[in-house]
Every structure is written in structure tokens, then in C-alpha cells.
Amino acid sequence: MNLVILYANNNENMSNFFAEDLSLPGDRIIDQKQAISDKTLKINLNKNIYGSFAEIGAGQETARHFFRAGAASRTVAKAMSAYDKQFSDAIYTVEQDGRYVTESRLHKMLDHEVKLLEERLDQNEHPDRIYFSYANTVATIDFAKKFKGHGWVGIRFQNEAQGEFNEIILHIQFKENDVLLQQRTLGTLGVNLIYGAFYQYHDPKKLIHHLYDHLDKDQLEIDTINFSGPAFKSVDNRLMSLFLVKNGMADAVMFAPNGKNILPANTLFRKNVLLLRGSFRPVTIVNINMYQKSLHQFLTKNNLSEQKTAVIFEITLNNLLALGEVNEQDFLDRAELLCALGHTVMISNFKEYFKAVDYIWNYSQEKIALTIGLPSLIEIFDAKHYTNLPGGLFEGLGRLFKHGLEIYVYPFLNENDEIITSKNIVLHDESLKPVYNYFVGEEQIIDIKNFEPQNLKIFPHKVLQKIWNNDESWQNDVPEKVAKLLKANNLFRKKDSL
Predict the structure, then answer these.
(1) CA distance 494 to 498
(2) In a domain, 77, yes or no
(3) What pLDDT digit, counting tens, does each position of 179-235 carry?
(4) Partners of 18 in the β-ladder
(5) 175 and 124 inside one domain
(6) CA 316 to CA 349: how far, in whole Å?
(7) CA 176 to CA 172: how far, in whole Å?
(8) Which residues have CB under 8 Å from 372's CB, separation 6+?
């Protein structure tokens, strides 16, 4: 049976219906793509939703949808754009770095606009109103079409009358090559975000999914999103990062040791980068030894400053899917340990190393290095991993090493207890040895020195097996801090749940 509901702009009864709909539990929200005009009209007809719009850089594209839908006076307290830099600075103050498309700028916009709502609107006159402020600060594609543009978008809102404010902040990268298309995309995204804040906040994953209503992933990428406030007190933003990558909304996301999602561009911009890829299930003393030794060699060899060097621990989606479906608790266990050790974590869908290097190069043209185990180096020179490239293995190697990449290699202990390094390595195809030797000679493949031979038999999967078997010797294979966390939080204990 199909149900069709017709409504008019000034129907007070329909407005009351939507007000009641606001309180529906998350699992009763209709999981269906609604027309943008339907979303804006539904909000406009809800007499209790009221707020302001502040949009800088791409026109008042979001507010325009609400004005076109009709009954906008019920929703829009103010809509503005401060395009002139002096006007913008006078309203929102000056940024220390002089930039305008920043997260800091967006927060200042939301702070200012919410303050005005509270100062200028009489809550006693409308005790049932819930207020919001939507803002964006955006740079669209430049005239030369060299930089496609990006922006910060956010909403601060109440989900109950006179309640505390909640916040959703996201960063987007435009992919379209036309400024008008980017403006329309931004407007659609803005409507989806505002609608989601009021009608889908019970289920943040559903909210994120519906941000792409009437949009395609080829139009924009969401590479950072953070939820905060009482409505999202149970939300782990690291899981929201994972959701973005898992659903193809972002190629890679990052989160800081405090668990907050951070913008990859800000983390990598003009930094030397050391990237460590692994399962980290769990982090072992070998992982830490690889990190410490390779970082020291990388800095010393290139005369680099540690303060200007970003160390990134990368977990690929392919690694997380090795168990079948992505297990969120397993992911959080890994993330918990890395964050506790003070590391920045990147989740990516880069199966091939050259894609990770290309991604980093987009944000930093400084020195880039990889730290890997010797078995991974053997796989890099295996042609089967490059069948999807027209130039095969040679194209893959060219893309990997073209930016002067350095690979720091941790040795491997084979079944004969022989230590294998880059010097005595055996490739799958030994005819590639001259190519391999070229990169060794150019010092782009470098052995990690001063490693600890007694630890070469430590592997994460063996440590995990010890934990499952209640073999307490696993504590000798991980850093002391990791051992304490593993025991205190009972991490990786349930084999059947993984």
C-alpha cells in the first residue's frame, strides 16, 4: 500500500504534526531519500525550529532553498554573507594565520551567531522553540582550475527547547570543475545537514549517509566530521571516521590521540611525513622499535626537524576487512592503543602504497618515508599487485618512488633463523633484481639499523593467540603501557567476537 501526503505552506495542523515528528526515536525515522524541497518545507512548517544562516564564499546557497520552499519566516531569523574581508573580520575577528576557510573561523561564526540568537530573541515569547545556527566558510574552484576548493560546514542546534546546544562540524573537498556546480552542491549538502540535525540526530550514521541525498560521491568528499554535545554523548567520532571511509565518502581520515577527528590537510601541510602501515592488533614492541629507529634515521639522513615531521600510523580498510566484515570493537581496540601511545592514526582505503604516497603528496611536497617490514617490501616488487595499471609493476614503482620516497625496512627472521635484510632479499621474480638494486643504490630502500634481534620472532597474530590462550608471556611482547591497557580494558580478549 502506497501512502501519499499532501500539504500546504500555511497549514498549522501540519506544522504541529512535524513538531511531534521531531521527538520520534531514531529507529522510527523513515530511511528514504526525500526531495530537497520537501526537507526545507518540512523544517519551515515546523513552528518550533528557528535560526540563522551565515554563509561565506559560495553564495547563500543553503538559505536560498529555505526561501524558495515557502513559509521561510517560520524558520529564518537571519541570513547573511560577509564576503568582504574587512566586514568579515569586523564581525568574527581576525584569524592569527590570516586565513578565512578554517575550522577556527567556522567556530567563531557559530559562536557569534548563536550569541546573537540568545541576545535578540525572547525565549519567553516562544518557550517551545529550538534554535540553530548554520554556517559555512568555503573557497570554490579557482579561475585556473588548479585548486578545486574546499570548505568547513557546521550547525549548532538544540534538540529540545531551552536545552544545551549540540554541534556537527564537517570539512569537504569539492571534486567538480565548475563553480556553479560547486555552489549547488554546497546548498544541497547544507539542507541535508540541517535536516539531519533535527530529524536524524538519533542515528549519526544514518545522518552521515543522508548527507549525500541528491549528491554523488564524485561531487564532493567529506574527510572530517565531528559530533559534540549532549545529543551525541555516546558517539565515538573515530567510528564516524571509519564510517566515512567504509562507505566511500572519504579516501582517508585521521584522528588525534584525543580521539577527535582532524583534518588531514592541516596535519600534513608542509610537513615531512613518516608513514607506518600495519595491523597493530595489538601494538607490539617491534612496532615501536620500527617507529623509533626509522624516525631517527629519517631525521638524521635528511637533516630534518622532528617538530616539522608528522608521524602517521596507518590502518587500511583492506586490513580491517581481512577478518570479513569490519568489526567496530576490534577497530576501537587498535585505535585505543595507538592513541594512548600518543600517535596520530590514519584510516584509509589505499590498498597500494603508491596511493597513500600520492595522497600525502597532495598536501605536502616535503620528504616522505615509509616504514615497513621486509615481507611487505617483497610484496611491493610483486607484479600481481599492479595488474590494474596499464604500465603494470613499472608504473606502480614509478608512482611510488617518483617523489623521492624513502622506504625504511625492518629485517625478517626466516624459518631457518636467518636474518633477511634488503641486502639478501629474495624477490618473487628475481629478474627484477636490477630494478630493485637501482632503488637500493639511490638510497630509497634503507635497512633499519640497531634493531633488536631477540624480538624478531614477535608478531601481532602470535601475541593475539597468546592472549586468547591466557598465556601471560604476551606481556613481554608489547610496550608496558599497552599491556596495562590491554588488561585494564580487557581488549582483544574475545576471540569469537572478532
Answers:
(1) 7
(2) yes
(3) 999 999 999 999 999 999 999 999 999 999 999 999 999 999 999 999 999 999 999
(4) none
(5) yes
(6) 6
(7) 12
(8) 276, 277, 407, 408, 409, 410
